[in-house]
Write a structure and sequence with these properties.
By secondary structure, this protein is mainly α. The chain has 2 domains: 85 residues, Rna Polymerase Sigma Factor, Chain: A, CATH 1.10.1740; 89 residues, Arc Repressor Mutant, subunit A (Orthogonal Bundle). It has 10 helices and no strands. The longest helix has 30 residues. It is elongated. The model has no long low-confidence stretch (mean pLDDT 77).
């Protein structure tokens, strides 16, 4: 097969993957992006890059993983931008919360080489949490409220609030673990 034929075959493969797997890719991007419009942009960017590099991608064994990696990298770039974080309403993560989540995931939070990357991934993961878990996490970690104060504010039991925070920490640790699997 000639190079031109290889390029055409790779393009057809990419276009078919887009038609067949677009919804799944978009669902993933939508869970991690601040809004649907951004998720769609991330998906389009990933497939645009794939089409632009069709000849090189003919050597890639797992095209789906390549698309996910391209989307994750684009999302990380987006979250690194201060303006995007501000528009999405993201607030800074306290060092204590970061340390607790990183430790739960089995990582050394003092490792400067991965700290910035972990923080970006963590911000995305926090936005993907269920709303009630996210609210408890933010109230405690960012507003400095105690469980007792939260109970008075929400009317929910301390046990419920503690469970939500525990589930949130576990989900964030799992998200960081998943992120680290992509990085290595």
């Amino acid at each position: 097969m000639s190079d031109v034929e290889n390029d055409e075959a790779a393009r057809r493969h990419i276009e078919r993957a887009y038609r067949e797997r677009r919804r799944g890719f978009l669902a993933w991007a939508n869970r991690h992006a601040p809004d649907l419009e951004t998720a769609e942009d991330i998906l389009q960017d990933a497939f645009g890059r794939a089409l632009a590099n069709a000849s090189a991608l003919s050597l890639v064994e797992d095209f789906g993983a390549w698309i996910f990696t391209a989307m994750r990298n684009r999302l990380a770039d987006l979250w690194r931008s201060e303006g995007a974080r501000a528009r999405a309403g993201v607030v800074e993560i306290s060092p204590e919360l970061f340390e607790e989540i990183a430790t739960e995931a089995g990582y050394d939070p003092a490792d400067r080489l991965i700290r910035d990357e972990l923080l970006a991934a963590l911000e995305v993961a926090i936005e993907a949490l269920p709303e009630k878990q996210r609210e408890v996490l933010r109230a405690q970690a960012l507003d400095g409220l105690t469980f007792k104060e939260l109970t008075e504010r929400t009317g929910e039991s301390i046990d419920t609030l503690m469970a939500r925070k525990r589930y949130a920490i576990r989900k964030l640790a799992a998200a960081l673990d998943y992120w680290m699997d992509f990085e290595t």
